[in-house]
Write a structure and sequence with these properties.
Blueprint (H helix, E strand, L loop, with lengths): L2 H19 L1 H21 L4 H6 L1 H17 L4 H25 L6 H18 L4 H23 L3 H7 L2 H106 L5 H32 L8 E4 H18 L3 E4 L6 E4 L1 H17 L6 E8 L8 E8 L6 H4 L22 H12 L4 E5 L5 E8 L6 H4 L4
Parallel strand pairs: 2-4
Antiparallel strand pairs: 1-3, 4-5, 5-7, 6-7
Helix pairs in contact: 1-5, 2-4, 4-5, 5-6, 5-7, 6-9, 7-9, 9-10, 10-14, 11-12, 12-14
Amino acid sequence: MNQEKRIKQKFDRYIYDSTLKHMLLIISLGVLFLLYYMYSDLKIRNSIQAFYARFIPIIIGVPLFIFHLISKDRFKHFKVVLYHLFLTSGVVMMYIISLIHLNTNALAPSVTGIILLIFIISLEIKTKTLNTIFIYFLPLLLFSLSLIFYFKPTSEEFTVMADIYPIIFAGFAINRIQYNLRYKLFKSNYLLDIEKQKSEELYKETLLINADLQRKTDEILAHKEEIVEKNEKLQESNATKDKFFAIISHDLLGPFNILMGFSDLLKDSFGKEELEEQKKYVNYIHQHITKTHKLLENLLRWARSQKNSLEFKLEKENLYLFAEEIIELIKQAANKKSIEISNHINQDISVYADKNMLATILRNLISNAIKFTPTSGMVSLHANFLNHDPEKKWVEISVKDTGVGLKPEIKEKLFNTSKNITTKGTENEEGSGLGLILCKEFIEKHGGNIRIESEPEKGSSFIFTLPATYPANFYRNNNLI
């Protein structure tokens, strides 16, 4: 059963109760008035026909009165039907009296009585539209047919009775409007009561649950904050320590072993081997010294960043020119793999950044792109103001490559110090994984963020943001003063 049907059923019960509530009083008053007019018809107007006509509602009203007293709260629907029949009989009675007084001076008062009775029942009838049409218009139809085919009133008499017709329609309209308004009000109150009841029950349940949760939360929070804080510090410390020792034990000791090996070969073969063979040894030594120097530089910067001992000074830098300087420094590594590096940054874009940190960020990201881009690939730099930044306070910078791309599980671990992610490049280039972690820390120190867009075999884009305007309270917010 849908809600609308359920509301209508409850409304019907409400109408029955409302109708029966004052039914005895109205029937009593109606019968008293009828007895008075019956006496008047018999003794004053000498109209025995009118006297008997008034018996029609009494025949229905008196038994209904007695039946209601006996049955009390039972047979509600049946009693409501009889009550509406009682009201209808009153209208029929007035129509009959009007016909009786058709050719007398009492016609006008009889018509006035019909009009008054119509307005009274307009306020009292509480039933559906079809039943109301029956109450209003069936007696009127019979009355009209009697006038036309049997009594045939004069034009003056018809003029007097003509007032009944608009009043009937007006009374019907008033009754329907009242009934619909009563239903809408009942529906609104009913729905409001349901929601109120639900809200009260939910509120009581919520209070009980909240009280229990609050009690348990207070007990847990007393110990949780201290445990969480110590645990986070311990995890950070362990991750930093593990990363540090991993780099020293593998990425730093490894190159030194290679350097020692090639230097021994060079020492033992000096003057004995061909010059080209010795040049090859020197070239290997140079490559590993360069890579080790870069690793040491990153390692020292990272270690200093963990202690917050790095000098941090924001300056306005032309991003295009700054990127050109970094590209020039690492162009040789790109040339060895025939990789083209293109700078598409608008020459008018500037950022506020620490120049040493910005150099580290760009150098690491471009070197990383070269490392994972195959021969004859491309690396490009782009920069634009953020689309959702109407005041142009932030610049979004991207380093894109046409390399091997990243798997989703690798992407999620790249910036995590607790995960030792190192992957060889397209020509077996090695790295420590420290560069990207350092980039993330430096970018966040500027208030920006970094993200990766990449798919396997479709290249990668490392995208980060830097401030384009000098933030007034930047140093205070970053605990630098």
